[in-house]
Amino acid sequence: MPSHGSVIQVTAIAARPLDAARFLDRPGEIAVAAATLLALAAVVASLPPLLAARQRDATRTRLTPSLVMLTGGAAITFAAYLAFQIRCNGTACRSGAGGGPAELARWWRSESTWEWGAQLFLASVGLAAASAAFWLSARASNRSRSTLWAARVLYLLWALFVVVVPGAWELTS
After folding, report:
1. Is residue 56 part of a domain?
2. Residue 13 is assigned to a structural domain of this protein
3. Measured in Å, how far apart are the chain's first and last C-alpha atoms?
4. Which of 11, 47, 68, 173 has the highest Cβ tally under 10 A?
5. Confidence label for 56 from pLDDT (cuts 50, 70 and 90)
6. How many of the other CB atoms lie within 10 Å of CB of 82?
7. How far is the CA of 63 from the CAs of 68, 133, 153, in angstroms?
């Protein structure tokens, strides 16, 4: 019969594959997988209310903004995923990019920096919000408008972080 100490040791060894560092190293990848599954589920769950809708013009008017955000958000998230894969493939993207507060100085020129995962995470959360907005719009929920605005704000933050700040930095330096 094993002693109490050996049971704890075996438990610690069994839990090692679930080490937090493995998951914290790639939060953007986990978020994009979850957001993709949520987007697929939202589109499938939206089909019954859409097929049952009697007023086609009202349904089209209600769905257009969220459908545009979902489609555009999917493209943005895909571009964020490609940028992440090109820069972080085979490397851990936890290391810093250099100087500046929070190592933000010229992160877009570095290959292994946490900002690549952060921009992917932000785009993925935006895709999740856009998916939820589409589903809520299909159900004619009053909460669809606020969820749609949340997706817009998330993608605006993504654009500022990925396009505007690096562009402004390069133009001024």
Report:
1. yes
2. no
3. 69
4. 68
5. low
6. 11
7. 9, 9, 19
